[in-house]
Amino acid sequence: MRTALLSGAVALASVAIISVHIARTLTTPSGERLERVKILDTGAGTVTLKADPDTLTPGVFSLYWGNRAGHARIGAILAHDPSGETVIRIVEQVYTGSLEPGTTGYWSGYAYPSPGAIGLIADDVILPGPAPAWLIRGRDSGRWVIHIHGLGGRRATGVRTTPLFDRLGFTQLLISYRGDGDAPATPDGKHHLGHTEMDDVEAALEYAASNGATSIILSGWSMGAAMALAATHTSHHRHLISGLVLTAPVLSWRETLAFNTAAARLPAFLADVALWILRSPLHGVAGTGQPLDLRPLDLTQEGPLVPVLLLHSEADSSTPISISAAYAARFPDQVQLVPFPAGRHTQEWNADPRLWEDSVEEWLSAHS
C-alpha cells in the first residue's frame, strides 16, 4: 500500500511539474532566436548555405544574423549539391549588415521588414496601447483589411501579402498588440495567448470603423487567426467584418497543444492540465498575473458567422492542418481550405506565393 501511494504521489507530482512547464513555456516570450543556418559562401547576388529543411524549401524567405543586426531577403534555389550538403540561392536584397562566409543566422518567413521595402507607402499610426500600426491607404476607403500576426510575431508578418490587397483596392492596417515587441509588454511580461490581446484587435476594428470602413476582411496568422475568428462573435464592430483569411490558423489551443505534447512523446492529457492551470486560481505558478481562459477562443464547433478561407501547409509541424481540415469539413458551406504541400508554420505564402495570392483573390471575388 505504501509503495502504491508513493508511486501515485510521484506520478501526480510529475504531471504537475510537466504541466506547469508547458503552461510557462507557452506564455513566456522567446528570447534570442537560435542561429543555426550556416552561410558557407557568397557570390554576385547569391549565397551558399548549409542545406536543411528550411533552406531547401522553395520560395522567398528572410535570413537574419547577428541577433537581427543583419537581414537579407533570400529567393529562388539555383543549385543543390547532389551530396545534400549545400544549397545556392539568390539574394534578392540585403537590408542591413553584410553577408559573410562563416556567419550563422536564422530562417524566417518575414520576407519584407516594412511596407516601404515592398514598394508601398504606409502611414505610421498609433492605436490605444500604445500599439503602433502601419496604414496603407487603398483606392477604396470603405473596404479594409486588418492584418493580425501570431504569437511571437510582429506586424511585419503580413507585409508579404499587402501588394495583393493593394492591387485590389483595399485600405490596409497592419497592427501590433501587447507583448509583441512593437507594443508595450503585458503587466506580467507574459503572452496572454489572445485572452487580453483581443482588446488590441478590438481597438483596430474601432479605428477602421472610425475612419470610414464599411467592410472589413481580417487576415489572421496563427494565433492572430484565432483572434480574428473570435472577433466575429464578440466585437462591437462585428457587423463590419465580411470575411476571414486565416493562414496557418490556431483554431483550437486545446487541440494544438495536445498535438504538440503528443509529438514530444508526452501524454496528450497534459495539454488539458496546462490549460486548466492557466485559467485556474493556480495560474500564478505559470507566471501569469491573471487567469487566462482560452476556451472562448475555440470556436471550431460553432458555425462561422462570415465566410472563412483557410490557407494551411501540410508540412506545418506545430499547428497541424488536420484541425483546419476538420473545421472545413464540419462547415463546408462557410469554410474553404486550401492546402499547401510545403512550408513550415506561417510560411505558406513564402513557399508558394502564387497559390496563396490566387486562392485569396478568387475567394474574395466570390465573397466580397
Produce a short descriptive summary:
The protein has 368 residues and is an alpha/beta fold.
Rg measurement, Å: 21 Å
- The number of distinct β-strands equals 14
Distinct helical segment count = 9
**Biggest sheet overview:** 8 strands, mixed
| Strand-residue proportion | 25-35%
What oligomeric state best describes the polypeptide chains here?
Answer: single chain
Low confidence ranges:
4-12
Helix content: 25-40%
Q: H/E series, N to C?
A: HEEEEEEEEEHEHEHEHHEHEHH
Helix and strand arrangement:
Layout: H1 2-27, E1 37-43, E2 46-50, E3 61-65, E4 70-80, E5 86-96, E6 104-108, E7 123-127, E8 131-136, E9 140-148, H2 162-167, E10 170-174, H3 198-210, E11 215-221, H4 223-234, E12 241-247, H5 253-263, H6 269-279, E13 308-313, H7 321-330, E14 335-340, H8 348-351, H9 353-367
Parallel strand pairs: 9-10, 9-11, 11-12, 12-13, 13-14
Antiparallel strand pairs: 1-2, 1-6, 2-5, 3-4, 3-6, 4-5, 7-8, 8-10
Key descriptive features of the protein:
globular, alpha/beta, 14 strands, eight-stranded mixed sheet, six-stranded antiparallel β-barrel, 368 residues
Structure description:
- With 368 residues, this protein is of the alpha/beta class.
- The protein contains nine helices and 14 strands.
- α1 (2-27) packs across α6.
- It is globular, with a radius of gyration of 21 Å.
